[in-house]
Amino acid sequence: MTAYTALHVKQGILTKPIQETPGRWTVLLVTTLAGFLIPFMGSSINVALPAIGKDLSMHAVVLGWVATAYLLASAMLLVP
């Protein structure tokens, strides 16, 4: 399948196709799957919060920051 840029179509020049990169579908699949897993990770940390609070003697306000920090750190791993 040959893809062309918008500039080529606008100018009527359809002679320079975009090069197909071999791993682009793999990258799309991995990032999409990771994006779908973030809410499940958020649910798992919410289930574990009472045990974390009990073991570390943390108040409920601090536990909210623990969940936020965990989700922020895991989401940052998705950003290249």
Q: Can you give a write-up of this model?
A:
The chain is mostly helical and 80 residues long. It contains 3 helices and no strands. The two termini are 28 Å apart.
Shape: elongated
Based on DSSP secondary structure assignment, what is the total number of beta strands? 0
> Which assembly state applies to the chains in this document?
single chain
> Could you name the ranges where pLDDT drops below 50 across 5 or more consecutive residues?
none
Strand composition percent: under 5%
Q: What is the mean pLDDT?
A: 78
Number of helices: 3
List the helices and strands in order: HHH
- Proportion in helices: over 70%
Distance between the termini: 28 Å
Sheet of most strands: none
Using only C-alpha atoms, the radius of gyration works out to 22 Å
Class by SSE composition: mainly alpha
List keywords for this structure.
single chain, about 80 residues, mainly alpha, 3 helices, about 70% helix, about 0% strand
Short description:
With 80 residues, the chain is mainly α. It is built from three helices and no strands.
